[in-house]
From TrEMBL:
Coiled coil: none
Pfam families named in the record: M20_dimer, Peptidase_M20
Residues in Peptidase M20 dimerisation domain copies: 224-309
Gene3D superfamilies linked to this entry: 3.30.70.360, Zn peptidases
Name of the molecule in the record: M20 family metallo-hydrolase
Family, similarity comment: Belongs to the peptidase M20 family.
PANTHER family associated with the record: ALLANTOATE AMIDOHYDROLASE, ALLANTOATE DEIMINASE-RELATED
Keyword Hydrolase: yes
InterPro entries: Amidase_Cbmase (IPR010158), Bact_exopeptidase_dim_dom (IPR036264), Peptidase_M20 (IPR002933), Peptidase_M20_dimer (IPR011650)
SUPFAM superfamilies, sorted: Bacterial exopeptidase dimerisation domain (SSF55031), Zn-dependent exopeptidases (SSF53187)
Keywords: Hydrolase
Length: 422
């Protein structure tokens, strides 16, 4: 019998332990409606990491951190020199996030490794559980900084000058964070600093969409991730008195924003409803009712599974805005570009086989959300496993997956990791 179907391993995954850990972590940053607000590189983030580290050390995993704050928990294989299998996700949340996005992938990785150790399954390869820094991009934009730096997609100093809402730079927040974790073992920044390339990477995550629940399925075998591009647009006009300045003389940044977004809606219209286009964060200065707005900054989140559409429509954004606005100076900055990826069939097969062996119903499906796994694709064979999200709700305090669904996901993860780690 292969380790992937070993009954001891499956039985060693504890639904109660995993759920209890998730609920303990959910208290750190709890907000009304069962939500969590735990921004990256904050004292709350560090408290959550220490809780996780305590559980990992209690079962004999070794702990280390890298220069961008990625956290690693290592289970030693029988051949410590062999390239490790990696699993994990992120521990930061959206400002009004739920209890499962990201954190479940980390807790499930720990549950899977604990089950492997407790059931006596021996893996040749080591297994490393990673918590990537700033996946959400909620405090510092964009997301996925930890995995982008680790994989060599972008230099680690790319985001030094990015600020949060309080004007704190990413560089300063990271420096403070690293000082607070200087007692932990330090390791290089992955393959870009000469660390080993993993043998494979498998990330567990809640689906964040409605499909699995609607189709009565247990497991999503993720086939790939659509592409995403993020832009920051600044429109700069002139402030004026709302009671006196004639409309024809104004350089009103809010009115130009409305023109720009209307034109972008036309550019992004998609009768097939595949394209995703979101304007969700808007800053206005001076932000008072009786002064004409001088500056508006707004974000664009644009996604599509087809690389050509991503390039064509994404590259048309700036000119569409410039043609639409009447009075303002325009600056468009691209802050994130994740190309669509296909996952490796070997990893997909390992997940699908594990689900089938456990009598679970699965489907191969693409991901609409981006994930750190997107940046692992050029580095090593990569895949993901999804569990259902109730009503597909996510990035919302009401996000929910049941203890049973999450346990099924952890069992599939445990079996697939055991297969990959040999
Ligand atoms: C990640 O949180 C995403 O926006 O897809
Ligand atoms: Mn996530
Ligand atoms: Mn998220
Ligand atoms: Mn995400």
């Amino acid at each position: 019998m292969s380790s992937a179907t070993a009954p001891n391993l499956i039985a060693a995954v504890s639904q109660e332990r995993q759920w209890d850990r998730l609920m303990q972590l959910a208290r750190l940053g709890a907000i009304p409606g069962d939500g969590v607000n735990r921004p990256c590189l904050t004292p709350l983030d560090r408290e959550a990491r220490r809780l996780l580290i305590g559980w990992a050390e209690a079962i004999g995993l070794s702990v280390s951190v890298d220069p961008i704050g990625n956290l690693f928990l290592r289970h030693e294989g029988t051949d410590p020199a062999a390239a490790p299998v990696m699993t994990g996700s992120h521990m930061d949340t959206q400002p009004a996030g739920g209890r499962f996005d990201g954190i479940w992938g980390v807790v499930a990785g720990l549950e899977a490794v604990q089950a492997i150790r407790e059931s006596g399954v021996r893996t040749t390869r080591s297994i490393e559980i990673v918590a990537w820094t700033n996946e959400e991009g909620g405090r510092f934009a964009p997301g996925c900084m930890g995995s982008m730096a680790w994989s060599g997609h972008s230099p680690a100093d790319t985001w030094d000058a990015v600020t949060d809402n309080d004007g704190v730079t990413f560089r300063d927040a990271l420096a403070e964070h690293r000082a607070a974790e200087s007692d932990l073992a330090q390791r290089p920044l992955g393959p870009v600093e000469g660390g080993p390339k993993p043998y494979a990477y498998l990330e567990a995550h809640i689906e964040q969409g409605p499909r699995l629940e609607a189709e009565g399925l247990d497991i999503g075998v993720v086939s790939g991730i659509q592409g995403s591009r993020w832009f920051l647009v600044e429109l700069r006009g002139e402030s004026a008195h709302a009671g006196t300045a004639p409309l024809g003389m104004r350089r009103d940044a809010v009115q130009d924003m409305i023109r720009a977004v209307t034109a972008l809606n036309a550019l992004m219209a998609d009768p097939e409803d595949i394209l995703r286009f979101t304007v969700a964060r808007i800053e206005v200065e001076p932000n008072t009712s009786n002064s004409v707005a001088e500056v508006v900054r707004f974000t664009i989140d644009f996604r599509h599974p087809d690389k050509e559409v991503l390039i064509l429509n994404g590259d048309a954004i700036e000119n569409t805005i410039r043609s639409a606005v009447k009075n303002c100076d325009v600056t468009v900055t691209e802050r994130f570009h994740a190309v669509p990826v296909d996952f490796d069939t070997v990893v997909q097969d390992a997940v699908e086989d594990a689900a089938r062996a456990q009598g679970l119903r699965s489907v191969r499906m693409p991901s609409g959300a981006f994930h750190d796994a997107q940046f692992m694709v050029p580095v090593c064979p990569t895949g993901m496993v999804f569990v259902p999200s109730h009503k597909g709700i996510s990035h919302n305090p009401a996000e929910y997956s049941s203890p049973e669904q999450l346990a099924a996901g952890a069992r599939v993860l445990a079996a697939a990791l055991a297969t990959l780690a040999g």
